[in-house]
Amino acid sequence: MAGYYYQIGPGSGMVSTVSKPWYLRAELPMSSDLSLHRSILQGGSSSSSPSRRDLVFVVNPRGANGTTGKEWKKLLPYLRSRLDKDCNICESLTSGPYHAIDITREAIREGADAVIAVGGDGTLHEVVNGFFWAGKPVINHDREDAHSTALGLIPLGTGSDFARTWGWKNDPYEAVDRIVEGLRSRVDVGVISGENEESHYFINVADIHLSAKAGYYSSRYKRFGNLCYVVGALQAFMGHRNCDLRVKVNGGAWEICSQVTALCIGNAKYFGGGMRITPNGDPRSGEFEVVMLQDFKWYDFILKLHKLYKGTHLTVKNVSSRSVHSIEVENISVSGSVYVQSDGEHLGFLPRKFSILPSVIEMIC
Ligand SMILES: Nc1ncnc2c1ncn2[C@@H]1O[C@H](COP(=O)(O)OP(=O)(O)OP(=O)(O)O)[C@@H](O)[C@H]1O
Fold this sequence. Notes:
By secondary structure, the protein is an alpha+beta fold. The protein is 27% helix and 32% strand. The chain contains 10 helices and 19 strands. Strands 9, 10, 11, 12, 13, 14, 15, 16, 17, 18 and 19 form an 11-stranded antiparallel β-sheet that branches. A 6-stranded mixed β-sheet has the order 2-1-4-3-5-8, with helices on both faces. Strands 6-7 form a two-stranded antiparallel ribbon. Bound molecules: adenosine-5'-triphosphate (ATP).
């Protein structure tokens, strides 16, 4: 699917499409997005001085049950007033799942200074995946430096869990201020490989079994806001059985982990709409924090849920934590599929290998 976006110029802010190759391959936006584009087009003036930096905003208009699109529209005048002087502000609305990946790849190849995800963790996840292609970082056509495009985030999703690790709120105005300030830091990204599958990337938390199943179901109930995680968890509990897994940490020997309820691989700290599951996860540490819950019963969640939210569960019985740079996980039992998700998006089933790519992306933070 070809990408499309519009450049919003300085001054009084007329907007024009940008005459670069991939913009010319633009598809027409979906009708509901067209109104948003039109409203921008009516407001602006155009400019594309070569010295100005291109900031590409990848907006999921359907994020947070459609709130992202509405908030983005309200945010644009502020964005223009703060960034118009120095930057070309380019917006691209996604037309459906996975579109953000293509937009990001094209923007990097065309030399964008930053690609900024506007939406929730799902949108951020797709943008992060757009930083890679065929197992390698995407590079600019004209420059040798593979990582010259920075990643940014305007958190406007239902959970927006990655933002919580940085202490950011779902406040788009604060996010714009961060982009204006322009501080950048290198962050780690997780890569997941499976049998005969292409590599897949994550920036927040990947998880296995009950929590992944809960995430799978919760995505059907996003219209309930943060309550979707509770409804998803209740549905996942029905018919849930703890299972024995085989794991290999940092390329060592295989170990058996019995009666695993959930295994969570944190590049950051939060998942499930604010649960501090891997409380020591840090995307600048070069390691994952792996937290395993074993032999949990449904009532353990009721009794210990507050600890999971606060991140004080590591001392609870049957909870373990360790720092790793790679972990392979297999299902021992031949019957039943064990769910895997990454950044809250369903990925498939075991077996999978998770490895860290230290400092691979520069992030605006
Ligand atoms: N135009 C679109 N129409 C429908 N779905 C889309 C569109 N663009 C992206 N998506 C999908 O929407 C999903 C959810 O998006 P996003 O993460 O931004 O919001 P959220 O689910 O409300 O927030 P969070 O993931 O933080 O809970 C993503 O998986 C993405 O693939």
